[in-house]
Amino acid sequence: MSEYQFLAFRAVDRPLTARELAYARKQSSRAEITRWYFENEYHFGDFGGDEDGLLRHGYDVHLHYANFGIRKIALRLPAGLPFPKLFWSNYIGLEGLTWKKDGRGKGGILSLNPYHESSDLDELWSPGEYLEDVVEVRNRLLIGDARVLYVLWLCAAADQYVSPDIIEPPVPGGLAELVEPCAALMIFFGLDPLILVAASEGAPALPPLEDHQHRCETWVDTLSHDDCRQLLLKLLAEDAAVVKAEMLATVRDSGPKIDWPVDALGRSFDDLLERTEELRAAYEAKEQKKRDALARREAAKQQQDRKNRMKEMAKAPHKWLREVDKLVAARGTQNYQAAGEILVDLRDALGDEGAEITRTHAAHLATKHPTLKHLKSMLRNQGLLE
Fold first, then answer.
1. CA angle in degrees (0–180, nearest 5) for 12-15-21
2. Phi and psi of 171, rounded to 5°?
3. pLDDT tier at 72 (50, 70, 90 boundaries)?
4. Distance between alpha carbon 229 and the CA centroid of its chain, in Å?
5. pLDDT > 70 fraction of the chain, expressed in percent and rounded
């Protein structure tokens, strides 16, 4: 297996300034760099720049993938974790999940980097596709979604060197509702997304959440006429993307903090994995029943469609023989197969007379097209040609 690495950064809240962009360009001479993203692939060699430095100089999310075991994401949180330390310290502290506070101010970098052997996880062919999911995780974390902390803890607990007997932190309410939004992230770190359903069993219910549109409307209603005028002038005079990012941050910070319900259920990570396997088996059995039922419906429909077609064939057999000739003349294995199906249906539709008509027509086709080996093979397989 050849070595492959993918490394990317994304600016989410605002584009990089000229100074930040200049800093980014000093970190790599090969990467594709813009005010919104920094991206590079390596088949030999490694990234020699400052990952944390790029996050502290404009970029908001980072993803690093290597097919020899590295799977890392990092989130820049300029205002820090939106939870009291007494709360978030329950989830952050494993070796693979760390919070690195800035030297000044409230901001910092939340990194998830569990250890995996290269053989532990399936290789990914398009790791860049997971970047949007990392952005979504950051967005949820910024608005105080405590479930994200638990999700990140699960991913860190999958580290090869973390004991499977480790006890889970307090379980936030509503984890099962994150199965779809966080599925890609769980898969990226080698976990079955149904582990969130397993973890949600016995946990509190999801608290009422205010949607983004309503929060924006509430904030706009608080603005005076002068406030609106100043914002409009700022949008026209400055970088609109930066101004929008600042407004969204204000909207996010203006909303009420969610008092997220949690419960200490005391299960081990191994308990959660075992329950996930049970849920996956039940889910697959249910899905197989659905597939079987669908297959039966499709088979019944095809059988009815065939009966209807055979009725039409009995009324005008020569019309269908001409259709066979057109398909053969068009060439191609699929056309030969379709021609053979028509002849078989025509044979069955006409009874004894049909057997004679279709054998005669098949012999005619073989004589007319002596070089079409696939055609003659199909006719023999269908019992239409000696």
1. 120
2. -95, 120
3. very high
4. 41
5. 95
Cα–Cα distance, 178 to 201 (Å, whole number): 14
- Cα 28 vs. chain centroid, distance in angstroms? 29
Between CA 94 and CA 80 the distance in angstroms is: 19
Same domain, 109 and 37: yes
Among positive and negative, which fits the CA dihedral 300, 301, 302, 305? Answer: positive
Q: Say how far apart CA 72 and CA 215 lie, in whole Å.
A: 32
What single letter denotes the amino acid at residue 9? F
204 shares a domain with 63 = yes
Our measurement of the distance from residue 329's CA atom to the centroid of its chain's CA atoms, rounded to an integer in Å, reads 45
Q: Tell me the pLDDT tens digit for each residue of 235-250.
A: 787 777 667 767 767 7
- 238 in a structural domain: yes
- What number is the average pLDDT over the span 265-278? 97
Over range 375-381, report the average pLDDT: 88
Residues 154 and 240 occupy one common structural domain: no
Residue with tokens 């419960």: 263
Q: Look-up: residue for tokens 């949008």?
A: 235
Same domain, 186 and 81: yes
Q: What is the pLDDT of residue 245?
A: 66
Q: For the segment 43-71, what is each residue's pLDDT rounded down to a tens digit?
A: 988 899 999 999 999 999 999 999 999 99
Cα–Cα distance, 155 to 214 (Å, whole number): 32
Total number of domains constituting the chain? 3
Domain containing 334 equals 316-381
* pLDDT tens figures, 286-305: 999 999 999 999 999 989 98
Q: Are 382 and 340 in contact (CB under 8 A)?
A: yes
Q: Is 21 in the same domain as 169?
A: yes
My answer on whether 34 and 177 are in the same domain is yes
Is there a single domain that holds both residue 178 and residue 33?
Answer: yes
The answer to whether residues 29 and 148 belong to one domain is: yes
CA distances from 224 to 221, 227, 229, 247 (A): 8, 5, 9, 15
Residue 311 lies in a domain: no
List the structure tokens of 257: 């903090």
Q: Please report, as a single letter, which amino acid is at residue 10.
A: R
